[in-house]
Amino acid sequence: MKNFTLTDKPITELATMIQKGIVSPIDLADAFLRQIETINNALKAYITVAEEKAHLAAQEATEQIRKGNYLGMLHGIPYACKDLFQTRDILTTGGSRVLAEWIPDTDADAIQKLNASGGVLLGKLNQHEFAYGATGENDHFGTVPNPWDLSCLAGGSSSGSAAAVAAGLAVYALGTDTGGSTRAPAALCGVVGLKPTYGRIALKGVIPYCWSLDHIGIFTRSTIDAYVVYKTLAQNIKGKAPLQRKTVEPLSDLACLDTGKLRIGIPRSFFYEKMDPEILESVKGVIREFEENRFEVMDIDMPPMENTRTVSLLIQLPEVLSYHSRYLPEKRGLYGEDMRGGMALGQFILAENYIRAKRVMQEYRLHIEQTFEDVDMIITPACPITAPKIGSRFITVEGEKEPIGNAITRFTSFFNLTGNPAISIPCGMHSNGLPMGVQLVGRHFEEDQLLKSAHFLEKQIGWYQKYDGMIQKDPSKRLKIDA
Amino acid sequence: MGKERRPLTKATLENILAEFPTHEWADSDLNELVSPKHGVISGFQQINLDTQKLVELDLKDIEPAGMLSTDVEKK
Fold it and tell me: pTM value?
């Protein structure tokens, strides 16, 4: 079997192939490791490739499945994680020179769960240093380019996670999301990016950036894949759906959506302003798709948005400084200039203003809970722009100049403050050849409903059938990665 | 509206560092706060102006945001 036919497929197809004995976990691991060897020099998606451990895990999975001990859909499936996740006996850098030699002796909670489900960890993915920043630029390990156009950014901070899944270097990947660091790069790279409710997936063993806003993120090729990984990682919250079960049946679970009952909210302001007109048209097409399929669509009022970035920064900067204070006396000079500047700013923010920002954050939550009494889901564009050129600092949209990092996360960061589950799925190709994404946001702890709606939309758009795998299948889209 | 304030200067930051218990920062770090080169933060002066808008909000008795739920079931 040729590599591209394997490295191109979602979890659901590969799991069926494993169960039928068409491929083994060893075949899969070999195919992905070869793909990494071919492409990673250009893509810089992996900081560390855990080849030996991946082989051992794949051999174990192959052996167990041969004996009839099949653990479920993730058994034998190769995955990777952002280098913020602690991994036992594997270098964990956080994308920084500060941790250039740290080899943890335990796995992060999420890694433990995936490995216990038979997952095969291929390695650790590149990122913006310690998740500080949305561009994914990294002076030390290199900046991950966008697989659709190597002159553009993959976006960040989970740049390697998005690029690896888009380019077939992992079937799925874990990232984090503090202001959009999963949903935004997913949109820019044409993959699915899910941020479950704040606290739904345990962050234990993940290097923190900002405790108040950090979420774990899941990158996949399809919404069904996102559902499978999410169900494996989700913690049960008393009195809240959903619940881990012994088996996940994604096709039947996601197919049973009653479209007649869902009410969709479209924010009247902010989220549809100062953006690329083609993305705006594409998202309007998504809304029409829902309307034509008996969803009820209505305009909604959101809280005033002009302060959200300030609120987010006033929380992020003191928290990132507080965590990294342990390293500063000895290693301050090893941090990148941009992160040092942010931490220095965190030093001068008054404690009262930090608390005030957390109170405004609570006000946002109360407002959004009220909004979700009238609607079941909110739809916005995932990003106002397509992937910007590497090295660009500002972008001008409708005559207004904005730092690239702000623009990338302008539509996502509010939902880190409110903690709602949100998903970015591809909604079309821009005339510049880059993917565009739409963001669906659900009620707290109602990820199942969100994923059902996203799955419905994904089927209507047909992105996966049209574009996914294009990079592997169409030589003109290989972008000279392996030349 | 709050009172009008003088623009922030690097000397102010240096004085704070000299007089308060803080981490040590390089000259270039302080420069980033008064004349930012990177796109992530917009400088201390801008943050101060933006923060002033928050200070003017009437938050009544709203408490700081915490966990959405700490009620995690242990398996």
Answer: 0.94
